[in-house]
């Protein structure tokens, strides 16, 4: 058998706020959005391909201290794309961890930005190369593991 990730579904507390956030940061397009007041959801994607589904069926903030999702990571082709995402993250006023672009570990060429969506869901946008010389906030473990 061969497996590949299809799409990721996230519970959100405010569909409009989350949809707008993901559209701004990731440049997704809305593929479909429910108009039913009691069943709000949106399908977001790129070039017609579904990437992320948002389901308005939660309250509060993401509980990082409980078992479940650690973070959701998106790979981009180059570090310049990561830096553009960092600018959008800052402009959106989102929580940005580690102060900006960081390497995945000491001596790594891969790296990215670590941040939170409006519900506190931890996210990463990274490039496989180009982060050489970027800070490494956690020297004893992978950067993406502890934020």
Structural overview:
The chain is of the alpha/beta class and 147 residues long. It folds into two domains: 8-56, 2,3-Dihydroxybiphenyl 1,2-Dioxygenase, domain 1; 72-145, 2,3-Dihydroxybiphenyl 1,2-Dioxygenase, domain 1. It is built from two helices and eight strands; from the N terminus they run βαββββαβββ. A hairpin with a 2-residue loop joins β3 and β4 (49-56). α1 (15-26) packs antiparallel against α2. The longest helix has 14 residues, at 79-92. The protein is globular. The mean pLDDT is 95.
Give a concise summary.
This is VOC family protein. The chain folds into two domains: 8-56, Roll (2,3-Dihydroxybiphenyl 1,2-Dioxygenase, domain 1), CATH 3.10.180; 72-145, 2,3-Dihydroxybiphenyl 1,2-Dioxygenase, domain 1 (Roll).
Total domain modules: 2
Strand share of the residues? 25-35%
Please list the strands of the largest sheet in the order they lie side by side.
Answer: 1-4-3-2
> Can you tell me the CATH superfamily of the largest domain?
2,3-Dihydroxybiphenyl 1,2-Dioxygenase, domain 1
Distance between the termini: 34 Å
- What does the average pLDDT come to? 95
Q: In CATH's first tier, which class of the largest domain applies?
A: Alpha Beta
Apparent shape: globular
SSE ordering:
EHEEEEHEEE
CATH topology category name of the largest domain: 2,3-Dihydroxybiphenyl 1,2-Dioxygenase, domain 1
Biggest sheet statistics: 4 strands, mixed
Pfam family, one: Glyoxalase
Protein name: VOC family protein
Domain VOC: 4-128
